[in-house]
Specification:
Layout lengths: L9 H15 L9 E6 L9 H8 L13 E4 L4 H11 L3 H14 L6 E2 L3 H10 L3 E6 L8 E7 L1
Parallel strand pairs: 2-3, 2-4
Antiparallel strand pairs: 1-4, 1-5
Length: 151
């Protein structure tokens, strides 16, 4: 049988939990802003949130005017997870399952996955009609046009 001296109290556990959260997630911490970008000379001038959601969920493969687009995804990680959560309200496992179904049934192909933020930026600058999402801090290239922001 456990003695009361050996059993941690709820207050002690709560204190440790609050201390850990303070260290891992400091007060005032804000998630990094994510922006949807295209090349300045890429032929795409406007894009709204709804159309972007439809594109990144494979519900459409071109814009209303018929212009095709190349979608670029970042590698799995916190920026990609935050992008899909903010845009579609789906968590990473929901997005993986969603795309698995679409690919399995042959209804759509997922966006092209870049190996890094730098590669995604390069692909957007080199490929006309391409769209990517980047952290705001990585979208400071004068050749990029920010279409909208996800905070």
């Amino acid at each position: 049988m456990w003695s009361s001296e050996r059993t941690p109290t709820l207050a002690l556990c709560t204190t440790w939990l609050l201390l850990a959260l303070t260290v891992l997630w400091p007060a005032g911490a804000k998630a990094e802003e994510i922006v949807v970008v295209t090349a300045v000379h890429g032929g795409l001038t406007t894009l709204d949130r709804g159309t972007t959601e439809q594109l990144y969920l494979g519900r459409r493969s071109n814009l209303f005017d018929g212009q095709g687009v190349m979608l670029i995804d970042l590698p799995a990680g916190p920026v990609r997870d935050a992008f899909y959560q903010r845009l579609t309200r789906k968590n990473p496992s929901q997005i993986r399952a969603y795309w698995s179904r679409l690919v399995f049934t042959g209804r759509a192909q997922p966006p092209r996955e870049a190996s890094s933020v730098d590669e995604a930026r390069r692909l957007v600058l080199e490929s006309q009609g391409s769209i990517a999402y980047l952290p705001r801090t990585a979208a400071n290239d004068p050749g990029l046009q920010i279409l909208f922001s996800l905070e």
